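tokens incoming
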């Protein structure tokens, strides 16, 4: 019986209702037999058995309450999981689906774009290096970016490869990959939950991942609001922040590629939607993007509010499926990753890939199964890093 199946959920709720009904029926009976006053001289003989019976009845009542509450909680959690698909099945819940998938090419790569320029002041919060010899281990630094055009702030972590500190690479400008979490997210989740730096270092040690600079961020810049990485009319200009402010800040403070062929962006869930959106709407900034279980159109609910001021044209322009079908395809490369079982956006991913037209190029990375969680995203990262290595150019 599947973890997300309707039968399993119905069984849990039926069991919960049965336990509640049994509790109501049994509760007065669980009080035990009542008895009148004990005859004189007999109280001491019956007190110990009576106390033992009372303890057993109290424990039985407590056990029944705990069991009922546990089943009710389990039923609710399973129903919530089925709705959001954090875990697609028992194998996903117990980490038994640890396999990987191969990238499948959909179109040939093409395209050139405009260079990056300018600078932006950045405040250094402090180094967070994994060791004392960055030329051997690389470095992890924490920064706060502030955009002069948008006025938005964002905490970030910048992961630098060992080659960045080696004399032989002193004149090398490294490719940059901006890495985004989902909503609401925090960059620290990429460190402590996804263990993104470890995945990068593993790929570098094996030679499968070429050296690059990774900027770890979150798309939520006006918390708790979910802006879906949009330039909200009269509100936060999140898209402009990532399209203009962040690239200029990184280029001003690190030895990174100046041209768009050295710039990529990736993310999971909301971050995946944002990554593809940035590349398709700003091909002069980003030449490649990877979406890990991302969706393809902006969500609007209580967390977002009105993102487009009631302007349907603005909303359409942020809908990746609409853009693909109605606007000229941009010269960018995309990696679309999802799960055949356990991911609600899989059908959307298939439809998006089916509509790819040159010069847009797209590759697919489909796992057999996996829920919408960091465990699944981690399984997608190694192949995604290799994919970027083949699509971004150092200078």
């Amino acid at each position: 019986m599947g973890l997300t199946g309707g039968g399993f959920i119905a069984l849990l709720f039926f069991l919960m209702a049965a336990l509640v009904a049994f509790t109501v029926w049994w509760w007065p009976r669980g009080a035990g037999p009542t008895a009148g006053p004990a005859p004189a001289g007999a109280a001491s003989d019956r007190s110990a058995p009576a106390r033992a019976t009372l303890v057993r009845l109290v424990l039985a009542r407590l056990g029944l309450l705990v069991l009922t509450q546990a089943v009710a909680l389990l039923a609710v959690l399973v129903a919530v999981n089925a709705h959001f698909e954090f875990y697609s099945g028992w194998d996903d819940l117990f980490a038994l689906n640890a396999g990987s998938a191969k990238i499948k090419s959909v179109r040939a790569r093409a395209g050139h774009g405009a260079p990056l320029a300018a600078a932006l002041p950045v405040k250094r919060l402090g180094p967070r290096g994994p060791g004392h010899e960055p030329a051997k281990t690389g470095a992890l630094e924490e920064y706060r970016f502030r955009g002069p055009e948008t006025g938005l702030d964002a905490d970030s972590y910048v992961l630098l490869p060992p080659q960045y500190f080696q004399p032989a690479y002193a004149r090398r400008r490294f490719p940059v990959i901006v890495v985004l979490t989902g909503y609401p997210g925090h960059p620290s989740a990429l460190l402590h939950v996804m263990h993104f730096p470890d995945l990068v270092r593993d790929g570098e040690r094996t030679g499968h991942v070429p050296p690059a600079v990774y900027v770890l961020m979150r798309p939520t810049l006006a918390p708790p609001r979910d802006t879906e990485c949009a330039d909200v009319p009269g509100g936060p200009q999140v898209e402009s922040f990532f399209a203009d402010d962040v690239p200029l800040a990184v280029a001003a403070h690190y030895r990174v590629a100046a041209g768009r062929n050295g710039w990529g962006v990736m993310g999971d869930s909301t971050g995946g939607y944002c990554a593809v959106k940035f590349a398709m709407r700003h091909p002069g900034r980003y030449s490649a993007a990877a979406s890990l279980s991302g969706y393809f159109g902006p969500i609007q609910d209580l967390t977002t509010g009105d993102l487009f001021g009631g302007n349907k044209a603005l909303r359409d322009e942020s809908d990746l499926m609409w853009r693909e079908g109605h606007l000229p395809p941009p010269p960018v490369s995309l990696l679309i990753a999802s799960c055949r079982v356990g991911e609600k956006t899989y059908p959307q991913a298939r439809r998006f890939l089916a509509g790819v037209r040159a010069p847009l190029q797209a590759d697919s990375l489909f796992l057999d199964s996996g829920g919408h969680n960091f465990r699944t995203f981690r399984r997608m990262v190694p192949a995604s890093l290799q994919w970027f290595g083949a699509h971004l150019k150092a200078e």
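note: Confidence is low (pLDDT under 50) at residues 106-129.
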